[in-house]
């Protein structure tokens, strides 16, 4: 009866020396990892410079322990035990990422009966069947981005890139293209990515209806799509939608503002981009709340495109015209709230600025604290970019994924300005980063040292470790 290999068994080494069977076993596992989990027996013997008889004894021992799979004649593959180790490592990496993304430890207790937890969409518990998309790693991924026209979108791109690098063992290349809010251009971008042979697509959509056909074509080619941030899941074929509950963001901030005003007064509404689905969902949520307060009057609804300049122009014009000064200003993001706050400061109203909503941007928190403005915000986390890459990788591995993934976020309120039903996870002065740039987006999920101005990253195809977000809105093809 043939004895299994032991630690004392030796075999020829490339340089003429000897090495233990244990060393050969480790080298074989590393070789399999580099060869996507399987290799022909003869090729393994040549690469390891070992006699096939010695190799066969070693692999049988490893197979007995589940580390190798010898079921395919002439091949050596990683076995179930080795695959479980890899899956466990992925789980540990994901847990580490989620730990960075999760809200910091709660420092305030919630009011009894407070109801501000982001709603759980039914699609969060529905699973997509992804078996038809299953492929062998490594994967070539594409990201079709609606635009790169403000700091939040820069942070989203950084998060997507970080996701690809975080899982570089499974990702061979990432190609990023920015559409400049042009649906026709985004269609061409997606067609170009498909031509380049991507395995999966992350999509932040400009106009969902116009994109539906090209996304359907991608699916027909076996290329799955994960929607992130923008896009209508009722229109676009998709495996999963990674987002944060926009309507509830609008509801929470409007509820806080209504309670700050004690249910009466006038409000100016400054939503984001007219053509973006998240802006409409947030506005719908806010209007539903204000409608429950008959004594609150909506003075005007002015779309800002999430641009600081536009927010400042709208408010400055109102203050200069002698029109009624609002008792509160509702913004769905700090991107335009900063413009409103600056307009009030420029008009000499520092210290008497009405309550504002809208966070995300570091400068929004800085200005509110500096000028004594009551402020509430629910940050919209760019960390969803990283999560979308993880979900897409799961899809390409044939794993079931939720139809919708909601990324966690925080409620932030200036100190002393909590209301009856809206209690913060953090005070603004705990959340703000005085040591980092004004254009920092705080819910990036990229760690406390993240600085958008010095961010560098390397993945196959990008140049000089520069992010695809540095091009100022032009197309970036950072792929193979």
What does this structure look like?
The protein has 480 residues and is of the alpha/beta class. It has 3 domains: 10-78, Orthogonal Bundle (Arc Repressor Mutant, subunit A), CATH 1.10.10; 118-244 and 382-407 and 453-471, Response regulator (Rossmann fold, 3-Layer(aba) Sandwich); 246-378, 3-Layer(aba) Sandwich (Rossmann fold). The protein is built from 14 helices and 20 strands. The protein has helices at residues 21-34, 41-48, 52-64, 80-101, 151-166, 183-195, 208-220, 246-260, 277-290, 308-321, 334-346, 362-370, 384-396, 428-431; strands at residues 10-12, 18-20, 38-40, 68-69, 75-78, 127-128, 139-145, 171-178, 200-203, 225-228, 240-243, 265-270, 296-301, 328-331, 356-357, 375-378, 401-402, 404-406, 411-413, 426-427. The strands form 6 sheets. A 6-stranded parallel beta sheet has the order 8-7-9-10-11-18, sandwiched between helices. Helix 1 crosses helix 3 (52-64), helix 6 packs parallel to helix 7 (208-220) and helix 11 (334-346) packs parallel to helix 12 (362-370). The model is unreliable at 1-17, 105-117 and 472-480 (pLDDT under 50).
Residue windows where pLDDT falls under 50 for at least 5 positions: 1-17, 105-117, 472-480
Question: What about the largest sheet?
Answer: 6 strands, parallel
- Structural class based on helices, strands and sheet pairing: alpha/beta
CATH architecture of the largest domain: 3-Layer(aba) Sandwich
Radius of gyration, in angstroms, nearest whole number: 27 Å
Q: Indicate the mean pLDDT.
A: 88
Q: Looking at the structure, what is the overall shape?
A: elongated
How many strand units? 20
Which CATH class of the largest domain? Alpha Beta
Query: Approximately how much helix is present in the residues?
Result: 25-40%
Q: Measure the end-to-end span.
A: 52 Å
**Total number of helical segments?**
14
Q: What would you give as the CATH superfamily of the largest domain?
A: Response regulator
How many domains? 3
Write the CATH fold name of the largest domain: Rossmann fold
Strand coverage percent: 15-25%
Strand order of the largest sheet: 8-7-9-10-11-18
Protein name: ABC-type sugar transport system, substrate-binding protein, contains N-terminal xre family HTH domain
Family: Belongs to the bacterial solute-binding protein 2 family.
Keywords: Signal, Sugar transport, Transport
InterPro entries: Peripla_BP_I, SBP_2_dom, WH-like_DNA-bd_sf, WH_DNA-bd_sf
């Amino acid at each position: 009866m043939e004895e299994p290999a032991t630690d004392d068994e030796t075999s020829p080494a490339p340089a003429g020396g000897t090495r233990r069977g244990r060393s050969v076993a480790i080298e074989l596992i590393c070789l399999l990892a580099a060869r996507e989990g399987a290799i022909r027996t003869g090729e393994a013997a040549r690469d390891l410079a070992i006699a096939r008889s010695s190799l066969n004894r070693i692999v049988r021992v490893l197979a007995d322990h589940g580390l190798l799979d010898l079921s395919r004649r002439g091949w050596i593959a990683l076995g179930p035990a080795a695959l479980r180790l890899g899956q466990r490592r992925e789980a540990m990496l994901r847990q580490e990422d989620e730990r960075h993304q999760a809200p910091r430890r709660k420092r305030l207790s919630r009011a009894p009966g407070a109801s501000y937890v982001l709603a759980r969409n039914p699609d969060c518990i529905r699973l997509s069947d992804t078996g038809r998309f299953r492929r062998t790693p490594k994967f070539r991924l594409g990201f079709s981005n609606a635009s790169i026209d403000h700091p939040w979108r820069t942070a989203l791109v950084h998060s997507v890139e970080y996701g690809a690098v975080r899982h570089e063992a499974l990702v061979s290349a990432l190609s990023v293209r920015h559409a400049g809010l042009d649906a026709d251009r985004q269609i061409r971008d997606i067609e170009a990515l498909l031509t380049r042979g991507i395995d999966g697509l992350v999509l932040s959509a400009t106009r969902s209806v116009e994109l539906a056909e090209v996304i359907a074509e991608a699916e027909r080619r076996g290329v799955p799509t994960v929607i992130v941030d923008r896009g209508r899941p009722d229109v676009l074929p998709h495996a999963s939608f990674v987002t944060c509950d926009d309507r509830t963001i609008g509801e929470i901030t409007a509820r806080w503002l209504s309670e700050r005003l004690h249910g009466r007064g006038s409000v100016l509404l400054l939503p984001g981009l007219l053509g973006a689905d998240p802006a409409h969902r947030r506005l719908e949520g806010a209007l539903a709340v204000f409608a429950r307060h008959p004594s609150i009057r909506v003075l005007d609804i002015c779309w800002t495109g999430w641009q600081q300049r536009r927010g400042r122009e709208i408010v400055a014009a109102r203050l200069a015209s002698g029109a009624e000064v609002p008792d509160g200003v509702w913004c769905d993001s700090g991107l335009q709230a900063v413009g409103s706050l600056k307009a009030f400061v420029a008009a000499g109203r520092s210290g008497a600025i009405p309550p504002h909503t809208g966070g995300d941007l570091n400068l929004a928190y800085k200005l509110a604290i500096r000028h004594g403005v009551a402020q509430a915000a629910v940050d919209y986390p760019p960390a969803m970019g990283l999560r979308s890459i993880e979900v897409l990788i799961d899809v390409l591995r044939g794993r079931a994924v939720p139809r919708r993934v909601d990324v966690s976020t925080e409620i932030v309120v200036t100190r002393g300005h909590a209301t009856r039903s809206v209690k913060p996870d953090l005070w603004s002065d705990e959340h703000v980063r005085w040591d980092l740039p004004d254009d920092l987006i705080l819910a990036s999920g990229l760690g406390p040292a993240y600085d958008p101005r010095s961010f560098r990253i390397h993945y196959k195809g990008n140049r000089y470790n520069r992010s695809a977000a540095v091009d100022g809105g032009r197309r970036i093809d950072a792929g193979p």
